[in-house]
Amino acid sequence: MTKLITFDMGGTSTDVALVDGHSSLASVTRISGWPVKMPVLDIHTVGAGGGSLARLDAGGALVVGPESAGAVPGPACYGRGGSIAAVTDADLVLGRIVADRFLGGRMTLDGDAAFAAIVRLARAARLTPRAAAEGVARVVEASMARAVRRVSVERGHDPAGFALLAFGGAGPVHAVPLARELGIRTVIVPPHPGIFSALGMAYADVLVDASRTHFAVGRAASPARLARAARPLVSQVRGELRARGFEARAIAVELRADVRYVGQSHEIEVALGEGLVAAFHAAHASLHGHAHPERPIEVVTLRVRGRGHVERPAWPELPRSRPRRARGVRTRPARGHLAVHERAALVRGERLAGPAIVAEETATTFLPAGARATVGRLGELVIEVGS
Amino acid sequence: MSDPVRLQLMKDLFGSVAEEMGTTLERTGLSPNIKERRDFSCAVFDGAARLIAQAAHIPVHLGSMASAVESAVAQLSLAPGDEVLVNDPFAGGTHLPDLTLVTPVFLDGARAPRFFVASRAHHADVGGMSPGSMPLARSIYQEGLRIPPVRIARVGALDREVLGLVLANMRVPEERLGDLAAQRGANAVGANRLGALAARFGARALATATDELLDYSERLVRALVREIPPGRHRFADALDDDGLGHGPIPIAVEVRREGRRGADVVFDFTGSSPQVEGPVNAVRAVTLSAVFYALRTLLSLDVPTNAGILRPVRLITPPASVVDAAPPAAVSAGNVETSQRLVDVVLGALARALPGRVPAASAGTMNNLAVGGGTGIAAFAYYETIAGGMGGRPGLDGLSAVQTHMTNTRNTPIEALEHAYPLRITRYQVRRGSGGAGAARGGDGVIREMEVLAPLTATVVSERRASAPYGLAGGAPGARGRNVRIDVAGAEHELPAKVTLALEAGERLRIETPGGGGYGVERAATGDGTPVATTAFVARGAPSPRAKRVRSRS
C-alpha cells in the first residue's frame, strides 16, 4: 500500500499527512510560529484530539477545541475532576470506547461523569444527550476532514484514491466515520496504534538532507551537468552519515531538484536523472491540472538526501489460529452496547463486522454498522468502511 | 442533525470552499503580486448576494465584494456558465487594479443562481497614465481601464472580443491573461464544491444553513454592540494630502447606538472632508469594509465572516466626500490609504467606547510602490506594498514589520523581485526605534531601499509622512515615515508622501515606513518618576529603553 493518508489523533492535536509512493516534503514549516525554510514532512496539524473540550459558543454553535482537558484533569470520564465534556466523553457515551477496557483494562473510565458532562452540554444546546455526543463526534470529524482536504484536495489529490492509516490513541475511534466523510474506502489500523509513532522512531532510517541554490536553464540543466554540480553535496551528506556510524554500504544517496517553468516562482521537487524534464511536466499536470511541454524549464535548487539504513527488528506474524482458551472472552453485547473484540486474541485472516469495537492496550477501534474488518498478516486491521 | 451541530459543520464547509478557491488562485496565478503576496480574496455569496464566507485574505475586500455581486446581478441577466468581470469603483469595485470575477452558481436546474462565488485580485497594471495603475490622477479616467459588470464568459466559453478589449488597455497583457485564468480556475473550484455540497445536503438545506449562519454572526455582533455605552463616541484624524498639494484632509466618525433598546449602531462620518482632486477618495464600499473589519476584530476568531455582521450597522456618509466618492473622482488610493485612516478613526472611536480592547494606531499606510518601464516584450509593471509597525496592544507590544488592518499581503521575497524585475534590493531591515513608546510599545516599521538597474517610472503612494500614528491610553505616537531618492552621486533627496518620478539606472529609492503607536504609559515614566529620553536612544540606534532596562536587571 503506497497511497496513504496518515491520521494520527492524540489527546490535544491531530496530525495528517499524505504519502503517495513517498512522503511529501514541505519546504517551509513553522516552529513556534516562526517560519523555517527547511525540508520537513508535509504534516498538517489540527488543534483537536480526544481531550478537546466541547462547548456552545456565544452564537449557539457547538465548538470543539482548541481548549483541551489535557491528561489532568483530563476528560470528565478520567474521574480526575474534569467536568466539561471532551471528545473522549462523547466517545464513551456513544459506546465507541468501553469503560473497563481503557489502557488494556488498567484504567476504568467513569461513565457517569462522562454522561453528566454530556448532559450539561446537551442542556445548553437543547439536544438529547445522545444527539449532543454525536454532535461532538461529527464536529471533530468535520475539522479532521478539513485537515485531510488541506493535504490532499488542495495539493491536487483526491482522497478517495487513498487508504486512511489511523493511529494515535483516538485515531481508530474516529477513522471510519472520517473516511466515509471523505469518500475513502479503506482504513488501516496498525497494531499498537497508540504507540505507533514511537515504534516508527525505532524503525526509521536516518536521513541527512543537503541543498543548495543552483540556477540552470537550457543545456546547463542537463541531468549529467546537474549531477556533477551536486557532487559536493553528495560528499557532504555521505560524510555526515559516516560520522554517525553508518558504513558505506548502509548509505544510499538520492538526488533531487526543484524545477519550475521559467517565470514561475513556485517550484516542484522531482528526481534528478534522465527523466527529470518528463517528471516535472507530469508533476505539474498532476498538481495544477495543466502542463506546458513546450515551455522552457529552469532548475532552481539541487537537493541531496542521504539515507543511513537502520537494521529493523523483525515484526512477528500473527498465527492463523490460537488455542481456544487463549482467545479471550468476547463480550456478548448487552442491549445498547456493541460487541467487543480483544485485539490480542485475533488471528490472521479473521473477519469482523460492525457494529463492534476492537479493544487493546493503547487504543480502541470503532467499527460502525456496515464496516467490515479483516485481520492482516502482521495483525493490522484492514477495514472496508462501507456506508 | 440538530442546529448547534449543523451550524458548526456548515460554518466549516462554507469556510473551506472560500479557502480552497484561494489556494487555487495562489497556486496558479502568474504575477508576483498574486502568487507571492496573495493580494486577493475569495468569497461565497448566497443567491441574494449576501456574503456567506470569505477566506481571511485581504480585509479591505470584506464589505466591498458584496457590491460587486450586487452590481453584476442588477445590471445583467445571468445564465449558467456566465462569468462577470468588474472593476468599476462606482459599480461594485473599489479601485481599478482590483479585478473581480463573479460566477453565478445554478443548482438543480433552478432559474436563479443559488450562490455566487467571487474572486478579487489586485492586478499589477490595468492601464492609465502611469505603470502600475496607481497614478496621482485627477479623475478616474486617468487611472486605467474602467470595467462595469461585463460577461467575460458566456455559457462557459470565454468571450474573446471582450477579453481583447480589456487586454488591449493594459501594459502586460500576457500576465493579466494568466492571472485572469487563475481567477477563473478559483471560481470553478468554488462552484464545483458548492455543487458537491448541494448534492450531499440538498439545495434547500444549504439555503437554511446560510440563513442560520447569518443569524449566528448577527447574534454575536449584537452582543458586542450591547457593550457599547450610550453616548456619542467621536474620533477624528486626517490624511496627509492628496498628492496634488491639498491637505491635511480630515476624516471623522461618530459611533452611537440607536434603534429599539439601542440594538443597532451608527457609524456617522459626517465632518469628513468633501472629495478632493487627488486619488485618495474612497468609495462607500471601502468605508463599509473599514467598519466591517473593525467590528470583526472585536469578535472572536470563530465567528464566521459574513453579511450578518453588518445587520446591526447603519452607515452615514456625506455624498461626494472622501469617504463616499462620486464620479469622476480619482479613487486608486482610497482603497489602500484612506481605508487605513478609516480604520484608525473607527478603532479610535471604539477605543473610547470600549477602552482596553483596541490597540493604538498601526502604521496607517500601505506604503504603495508601483514601478514600470520597458517596451514590447521587455515591458514590466510591478506593484507592492511595504510593511510597517503594528500599534501597541493592551498588554502586548505591537509587532514589527507587518502589514496591518486593511491589507494582509506578504512581502515579495528579494530573490523573486530581483529575478523578475530590473531592481536590486540594497537594504531591507526593521526600522529600529520607530515604534511609539508605551507600556506596550508600538511595533517598528521597516526600511526598504532598492537600486534601479534600468530606467523606469516609480509611483509612491504613502501616508503618515506628516501626521504620526497615534498612541493610546498615554502611549507615544509612532515615528512618521520617509521617502528618499538617492541619486547616482549618493546625495539624498527627500520625496513627498505621494509622488511619481522617473529614475535612472544607478539611482536608489528608500522607503522608511512608520512605526505603530504605543499603548499605555511607559513604565519608566510612572515607576520611579524619571521620564526616559527615548529619542536619545533612538538616535544612536540603541535598543529601546525598556529592552535595555530588562537586560541590565538580568
Structural commentary:
The complex is a heterodimer of chains A (387) and B (554). By secondary structure, chain A is an alpha+beta fold. Chain A contains 8 helices and 22 strands. In chain A, strands 1, 2, 3, 8, 11, 12, 18, 21 and 22 form a 9-stranded mixed beta sheet that branches. In chain A, strands 13-16-14-15 form a 4-stranded antiparallel beta sheet. In chain A, a hairpin with a 4-residue loop joins strand 1 (3-9) and strand 2 (14-20). In chain A, helix 1 (87-93) crosses helix 2 (111-125), helix 1 crosses helix 3 and helix 3 (129-151) crosses helix 4. Chain A starts with a strand and ends with a strand. In chain B, strand 9 (249-258) and strand 10 (264-268) form a beta hairpin. The longest helix of chain B is centred in the middle third of the chain and has 29 residues, at 173-201. The relative contact order of chain B is 0.12. The radius of gyration of chain B is 23 Å and the shape is globular. Chain B folds into 2 domains: 3-219, no CATH class; 359-554, no CATH class. By secondary structure, chain B is an alpha+beta fold. In chain B, the strands form 4 sheets. Chain B has a 7-stranded antiparallel beta sheet with strand order 2-1-5-4-3-6-7, sandwiched between helices. Classes of the chains: A alpha+beta (387), B alpha+beta (554). The A-B interface holds A 56-64, 125-127, 131, 134-135, 138-139, 142-143, 146, 149, 153-154, 263-266, 287-289 and B 1-5, 7-9, 11-13, 16, 20, 23, 27-28, 30, 32, 35-36, 185, 216-217, 219-220, 223, 300, 302-303, 416, 419-420.
